Structures are given as structure tokens and as C-alpha cells.
Amino acid sequence: MGCTRLFSDVSPFIQPFLNGPGFGNANYSSSPVPTQISDAVQRAEFGNQARSDWHTLLAPHVAATRTMVLIKGTYQFSLNADGTCCRYILVLDPVFSGKLFPPSTPDNSTVIGSAEVAGDITTKDISTFLFPNVYLYETNGDCCVLGFHSFDFENGDASNGNRLRFYVVNYSSWISPGIFASPTCAANDPENCFQDVTAHSHEIAETFNDPFVGFDGIHNITPFWQNPAGQCQDLMEDGDVIEDLPNSTYPVTVGSVTYHPQTEALLPWFEFQGNSSAIDNAYSYPNETALTALSAPQPLNCGH
């Protein structure tokens, strides 16, 4: 029997993605005018210090589509009901990352490397690599990673004073209804729906607060914290704090479509502020009730 090559096409997801709250405007209590979700979170984070005319906005630009080729044994999949590819694809995390990030520079063999060489992404961008329903699992079987933010750095040259070039990037999955929640969750339980832009909103919010993921061991390092579900870190990963708590997503309607971005932890929570200086003295946003108390002080690695 012959083998049929599977191809997961991102094109049907691009416009719904661009129309969503990551780039489209909606109403939020932190902004006097309709704005993007990550801007609303930033404004909430700085509370009354946020000027009415201050915004941090994303201007989307769709670059060339690139294809990641996976070989049998490095992924698993489920077809759509009509037999097309794919309801979801599960990829080994080390394999996916190896095909995403360049091993050296210049590089045309990986997705990010070829985008850098072509000039499709620059050091002035936040670059999203959108994969529809592609989730990562570990070699021990742990699943699933729905997105991550990171960076690639390349050596500079005489043209930029030999300074390192940093490309700020994220992989985000578009999550179709019913993969991680009931297909009816939007109607029955709108604040517990991991779907559509949940992963992307999480990664962009974290990119705004921690673009280099503690790269030098100094910037964006926080006191060790532990969320109510037991997750422990010492980075300002504001999405991670909320992701495994009840009411982690927040329904936002843009046009006539309801999306499900994630609620984020705010800066005062990481600073262990007993009286939060954020909007309404909150520790989370847009759902201000998702995180209502500080972490207890934690020892190194939370004692693990």
C-alpha cells in the first residue's frame, strides 16, 4: 500500500486569527477606547499610572507561508471527520523545536532560519509562527504544549557594531473547538474554553513582560512564586500563573465572533504587593477574580 502525504494548511485560519482580539479592538475596563487584549492587560497592569493616551499596539503583517516537514515516528495525528488533515497533530517537542530554530547562521533549513534569511522577520518585530491545532509532547509522553515564546539570537557584524541580533518569536497553536474543551463551552462555560486564540494571547502577554525569558539571569527574574495549582517558577510568565486555574480564559467578542483569550497575572502579583497597584487593586486581568491572593513566600525552586 502507498503512503499519502499529510498536509495541514494554515490558510483557512489566518483571517480569523487576524480578526481576533490580539489585533482587533474590543472594549475593556482598562482603556477609554476599544483596544487590543494585550494592550488592555498592560494598561491594567500599571493601573492609575497608565496615561489615557498610552497604548502598546500590534500592527500585523502576514509574511510568506513556510512548511515544516515531519517524518513518520516524530508525530501523531487525528484526521477531520471528512478525512482531511488534520483535526490535530501531536509533535515531539525536541523535533519541533529543532525544525523551528536555526542551528547556525545563516540558515535556510528551518522555519525561523529561512524567515530571517529572507528578511521576513527582523529584530524590530514580534514574530508569530501560527500552527493550526499543532501541539507538542515530551519524550516521556507528557502533553500538551500549546505554544511558547522565545527568541533566536545571531552574531552581529560591522553593520550593527558586532552586537547580537535578537529575534523575538513565538509558536502559537490555533485551537479548534472541542480539542481541549466541549464544543458547547462558549455557551455553557465561556471562561473555561481553551480554543481559538488562547495560546497566542498567553504568549504575546508573556512576550510583552518577559521577551527574553530570563536570558541573562537578571532581567525579568522574579522571586519564586507558586500559583494555587502548585506551579512554581521565578520568571514573569504571567500566562503560566493562570493557565491551570479555573476561569482561565475570558470571552471577548470582536465583530460578531466570540474569542477566548487567556486572563493574565499582573505585575503586582509577582512583586508580592499586599495592596496591588494595578487596576482595581487586582492581581489578574481581564478576569480580576481569577487570581485573588498572593503566593506564599517560596524557597529556591519552591523547595522541590
Describe the model.
This protein has 304 residues and is of the alpha+beta class. The protein has one domain (11-303). The protein is built from 8 helices and 13 strands. The chain has helices at 11-19, 37-45, 93-100, 111-118, 185-188, 198-209, 238-243, 267-270, and strands spanning 75-78, 88-92, 126-132, 134-137, 143-145, 147-154, 165-174, 221-226, 232-235, 252-254, 257-259, 264-265, 284-285. Strands 1-2-4-5 form a 4-stranded mixed beta sheet. Helix 2 crosses helix 6 (198-209). The longest helix has 12 residues, at 198-209.
Instruction: Sketch the major β-sheet.
Output: 4 strands, mixed
What fraction of the residues are assigned to beta strands by DSSP?
15-25%
Q: How far apart lie the N and C ends?
A: 51 Å
Share in helix: 10-25%
Radius of gyration based on Cα positions: 20 Å
**Which shape, going by the Cα principal axes?**
globular
